[in-house]
Amino acid sequence: MATRHRFQLEGQPRNVVVDEAGGALRVAVDDGDPVLVDATLSGVPGLISMIVDGEPRRAYISRRGQGFAVTVEGRTFVLQPASSARGRGAVGGATDPPGQISAPLAGVVVEVRAAAGTQVKTGDTVVVIEAMKMQNEVQAREGGTITAVHCTEGGRVEKGDLIVEYESAP
Amino acid sequence: MFKRVLIANRGEIALRVQRTCRELGIETVAVYSEADRNALHVREADAAVCIGPGPALESYLVIEKIIDAAKRTGAQAVHPGYGFLSENARFAQACVDAGIAFIGPPASAMQAMGDKVSARRLMEEAGVPLVPGANDIDADDLDTARREADRIGYPLLVKAAAGGGGRGIRLVESSEGLEAAMRAAGSEARSAFGDAAIFLEKYVSPARHIEVQVMADSHGNVRAFGERECSIQRRHQKLVEEAPSVAVTPELREQLCDAAVAAAKSCGYQNAGTVEFLMDRDGNFYFLEMNARLQVEHPVTELVYGVDLVALQLAIAAGKPLATAEAPLEPRGWAIECRINGEDPYSNFAPSVGLVEFVQQPMGPGVRFDTMLFDGVDVPVFYDSLLGKLIVWAETRELAVKRMKRALSDLIVAGIQTNAPFHLALMDHPDYATGNVSTSWLESEFTMPQPPEDDPRERWALVAAGIGASLVAAGSEGPATQPDAGRWQRAARARSVGMRVDGGGIRGWRRGIGSS
């Protein structure tokens, strides 16, 4: 499950992509290299413990309006949701037959990342669907070549609609 | 000994006094304003009396309400803490008149020391060194002021006779500035204290703030508990205190203690008091003022002298004599106190008050944290910004600085901003490490380092926020029993939601299970 979160921090838009991978989390900030984070927290609000490359970090996180306040080593950062969206991801239809990707939820297509003819790898985002002010990245479950895209940017899709067809890589 | 003591204060000092009382088996009565209903000192007392609305003028400063609360609850004594009514002679007298012991000096000693001009006269008679100066000048009498100023020499300070807390003080560099300073100090004194009398004092600079703790019993015994150094100040407000002082030798300590004892004896002082001195580079020290109360920074003395000053205060107020020392007291090890204030060091120390969502208190060897903080306390806007005092003890000053840094980085306060990052930066400063400071050092030499452009903490905040947002999102979808739920969905379901509760007579903060 990949989740893209868009925040405003001191007026600057910031992106955080969180990906749950086998109990650990892969987190990338602003298109930087993702890091594997072993994280535990008791909730929001709560104290979060993050271990990256064996180094523990901690922060206290609480809700602040629609966003969060995060206290790290004596400094508090207030992260508001970006005006457009705060994201939540979903795997492209877990029950889709090979060669097809369906919309995991109803929403508006805000981005088509992979046009017909594009080569994709496992986990690549093919379409971004926005719902309830959250952006959801729909990802390829296997590598291959996109053969058809059945949605357009700005268009609405319903849950389960076939949105992308592809040919599996041999 | 008393059976029941009313503590006429709030915040960390109310808790501090309460703790000793409880250890000694003395019941405590808390007083509180409506804004402090949820405070720790209310929760932990044996009896609690509401004394009015938030503003101190309508609650903690109303003598009649406190006397009434003491009578109603059967308190035999009142401990005033610091601030509020602690140095109010009328209050001390009102307690005595009501048949309640006042845990502090008699009203007469308070009056003698409260007026700076009369205090200077007493010190002169007692042979306590004074900063060269001139007493009791009318703020409009410029001729006298000029004559005296020329005698004292510039730079000098113009001070309000009835002043305190840094108000009504003006620095004059040369004769041209005298008239304006007198007018300003006089009008400030008139409006703040209702008394326009001023005095002039030589400006000792650079100077250290050195103060001596004294305890005096009702049998004429006075003992000094060494010095504290409180040179780290901003706008005359102390921020860091320590005991002993790097600038005080054993010989100097003896002189300081002798002077402090003489000062206390000169006015028939009783109970805990502090004699403040300015000390120049050559070790010359001059009487500044006597504080007729327990000081905020008393714990550093407690740690290096192994004494509970509040317990001594209670014993003295109950008429017991001080144990006489066989030899002068020697400090053991080193203690440092950092005042943890609700203020933002990254935006010019602007006050930060409000709901504290989470606190992690520093613990471990040699660490003491006297604080009003707990998860869910709503820091009221009506009082000062002191949230707590972080105090450490170690064998040496160097180790104490290291321990303080460790304790400061262990402290987490979420919801409001504290000045802990300031203290950390201060502890790292080479001048502080060597103790090469004066009362003007902080304002003239120290700049709060602003966070770097690429503050690594920012990245961790983003990572944490991303994870938190995922958790929140996961918790808002899917049935709770979904068996193949990922770790984050499961965690989300158990998450606690904090909320401010304000209404229906309940005020506070609670954790609950549920969706946001």
Task: Please provide a written account of the structure.
- The complex is a heterodimer of chains A (170) and B (516).
- Chain A is mostly beta strands and 170 residues long.
- Chain A has two domains: 80 residues, Glycoprotein, Type 4 Pilin; 69 residues, Beta Barrel (OB fold (Dihydrolipoamide Acetyltransferase, E2P)).
- Chain A is 0% helix and 59% strand.
- About 6% of the residues of chain A have low confidence.
- Chain B is an alpha+beta fold and 516 residues long.
- Chain B has four domains: 100 residues, 3-Layer(aba) Sandwich (Rossmann fold); 71 residues, ATP-grasp fold, A domain (Dna Ligase, domain 1); 238 residues, D-amino Acid Aminotransferase, Chain A, domain 1 (2-Layer Sandwich), CATH 3.30.470.20; 44 residues, no CATH class.
- In chain B, the strands form seven sheets. Chain B has an eight-stranded antiparallel beta sheet with strand order 14-13-10-11-12-15-22-20, with helices on both faces. Chain B has a five-stranded parallel beta sheet with strand order 3-2-1-4-5, sandwiched between helices. Chain B has a four-stranded antiparallel beta sheet with strand order 6-9-7-8, with helices on both faces.
- In chain B, helix 16 packs across helix 17.
- The relative contact order of chain B is 0.10.
- The C terminus of chain B is likely disordered.
- The interface between A and B is large, with 50 and 46 residues.
SSE inventory with pairings:
The complex is a heterodimer of chains A (170) and B (516).
Chain A: E1 2-9, E2 12-21, E3 24-29, E4 35-41, E5 46-52, E6 55-64, E7 67-72, E8 75-81, E9 100-102, E10 107-112, E11 119-120, E12 125-131, E13 134-139, E14 144-149, E15 156-157, E16 162-168
Antiparallel strand pairs in A: 1-2, 1-8, 2-3, 3-4, 4-5, 5-6, 6-7, 7-8, 9-16, 10-12, 10-15, 11-14, 12-13, 14-16
Chain B: E1 4-7, H1 11-23, E2 27-32, H2 40-43, E3 47-50, H3 63-73, E4 77-79, H4 89-97, E5 101-102, H5 107-114, H6 116-126, E6 133-138, H7 142-152, E7 156-164, E8 167-172, H8 178-193, E9 197-202, E10 208-216, E11 222-234, E12 237-243, H9 250-266, E13 271-279, E14 285-291, H10 298-305, H11 309-317, E15 334-341, E16 343-344, E17 350-351, E18 354-355, E19 358-360, E20 367-371, E21 378-379, E22 386-394, H12 397-410, E23 412-414, H13 420-428, H14 430-434, H15 441-445, H16 456-475, H17 487-493, E24 496-503, E25 506-513
Parallel strand pairs in B: 1-2, 1-4, 2-3, 4-5
Antiparallel strand pairs in B: 6-9, 7-8, 7-9, 10-11, 10-13, 11-12, 12-15, 13-14, 15-22, 16-17, 18-21, 19-23, 20-22, 24-25
Helix pairs in contact in B: 4-5, 6-9, 12-13, 16-17
